[in-house]
Design a protein that fits this description.
Helix content: 55-70%
Number of strands: 0
Number of domains: 1
Shape: globular
Low-confidence stretches: none
CATH architecture: Orthogonal Bundle
Oligomer: single chain
CATH superfamily: Ribonucleotide Reductase, subunit A
CATH topology: Ribonucleotide Reductase, subunit A
CATH class: Mainly Alpha
Length: 298
């Protein structure tokens, strides 16, 4: 990856696209100053690095390793290449955070994201047994597509505003992720489409639960960012109750939900929803999803 690691991070620039940050969808965001918004943007960018790193190192790698034994030679080669890409990506996100905040990431991959022990245990079980728990294939597809949209949005930020190391990482990342989404669809076709109706119903219910609790609404890590922001800018303390309330309400905000999951941002995922009748119920969770004619994945 062509990133000049010898140069320092430019903390006068954004790390992330503003329209990807949860606070940008709140009314209180308009009351923040330029310096507040810049630092919030950088904290959110580092959190995104942590989350992608967590997904790639602890969950996707385990899932990809597990399916290799049941794949034909062509698919096995594709999955092995996929896994190698994820290892490279993980090294990049780790290095970005170490360079951005060495005091936080000198000896650890996570500072902003702190999942509960129960969440980690359950997630690892699901990741290590994707054939028994095919919900992992759906998580892979939806989150890989989201990462493509994240990179593309960040690359649309004017060059004089986006931090160069981050821009280079997003540029390289999006190239691999487009291919990964195609592999995710093959994995769904191979290991999910022909499963029994009962397994499909359970998978859809598990996906709704995981998406709603872990990937849709702003989580504890978002509140942690707010606390860090206030520690750096004490003048924001009176706004904390409003910030917290408005962040918690975003799961019901149409614009925020469209940014997260929609036919524009996650088109392949939505096409698979349409194809699988058991996933029509996702429309109760994702406000941007209206089922189209269902073509059964049987």
């Amino acid at each position: 990856m062509l990133i000049d690691w010898s140069t320092p991070i430019d903390h006068s620039r954004w790390f992330f696209c503003e329209t990807l940050t949860p606070l940008a969808y709140t009314r209180v965001y308009r009351e923040l100053g330029a310096d507040h918004r810049l630092r919030y943007n950088q904290l959110t960018g580092m959190l995104s690095n942590e989350l992608i790193l967590l997904l790639e190192t602890e969950f996707l790698s385990a899932s990809l390793n597990a399916v290799q034994h049941d794949a034909d030679d062509e698919l096995r080669a594709a999955v092995m290449s996929f896994a190698e890409d994820e290892r490279r990506h993980a090294a990049t996100w780790r290095r970005l955070n170490q360079l951005s905040a060495p005091e936080w990431y000198g000896a650890a991959d996570r500072f902003l994201c702190r999942p509960t022990r129960l969440t980690q245990v359950v997630s690892r079980i699901v990741a290590r047994h994707p054939l028994a728990c095919p919900v992992m294939f759906w998580i892979q597809l939806s989150q890989e597509e989201r990462s493509i949209d994240i990179s593309r949005r960040c690359l649309r930020v004017p060059a004089d505003r986006m931090e160069p190391h981050y821009a280079a990482a997003y540029r390289e990342h999006v190239r691999d992720e487009v291919r990964h989404v195609r592999i995710d669809a093959i994995l769904l076709e191979r290991f999910y489409a022909r499963r029994s109706a009962a397994v499909k119903r359970i998978t859809a219910a598990a996906f709704r639960a995981i998406l709603g609790s872990a990937f849709l609404r702003p989580a504890r890590s978002t509140i942690r960012i707010v606390r860090l922001l206030v520690s750096e800018f004490p003048e924001l303390r009176p706004l904390v109750p409003r910030i917290t309330d408005e962040l918690r309400g975003l799961e019901h905000d149409d614009d925020y939900q469209r940014m997260m999951y929609s036919r524009e941002t996650t088109p392949a995922t939505f096409e698979w929803f349409d194809r699988c009748e058991e996933f029509r119920s996702v429309s109760r969770l994702l406000r941007a999803y209206t089922p189209r004619t269902c073509r059964s994945a049987s």
